[in-house]
Amino acid sequence: MNSLTAFLLDVSTTVSSGSGEAAAQGTQQAAGGGLFGGMNGFTLVIIYCVALVIIMYFLSFRPTQKREKALAEQRNAIQIGDMVVTNAGMYGKVVDTTYDCFIIEFGLNKGVRVPVARGEVYGKREPNMTNEAPPEEEKPKKKGLFRRG
């Protein structure tokens, strides 16, 4: 917008005064004002892109990294004898561990032992074998941004 204003001032000053020196002074005055002073358009685009990357990092990448870190800590806490659920939704009991996988017993047969990669185990969880729904936990109410109390 500043360059358009400067161009219009340059054209109007040149037409009205006929002097090139007055037009140059008007252009310098118009280009020097504004929010970012004498920055050119390329610099503003770079600043805008850097700001967008920083905002995306704090809104998208950082929470994802925190969630993955918590899930990795939960997987490392799994020991022999724990009931686990896989990413596919299958429940089983850990009977052995190796460097990169868990040996899990699936089903009531206790004869089906399957090696499952550590990344495919979602976490510790007991299956709900009753017909009743689990009791719902009360979640604390979130306060609004502008609400008090």
Features:
149 residues, elongated, 18% strand, five-stranded antiparallel beta sheet, 44% helix, alpha+beta
What is the subunit organization of this protein?
single chain
Which structural class should the secondary elements be placed in? alpha+beta
Q: Report the average pLDDT across residues.
A: 77
Give the topology string: H per helix, E per strand.
Answer: HHHEEEEE
Contiguous helical run count = 3
Report the uncertain regions: none
Draw up the topology in text:
Layout: H1 2-17, H2 20-32, H3 41-76, E1 83-86, E2 91-97, E3 101-106, E4 112-117, E5 121-124
Antiparallel strand pairs: 1-2, 1-5, 2-3, 3-4
Helix pairs in contact: 1-2
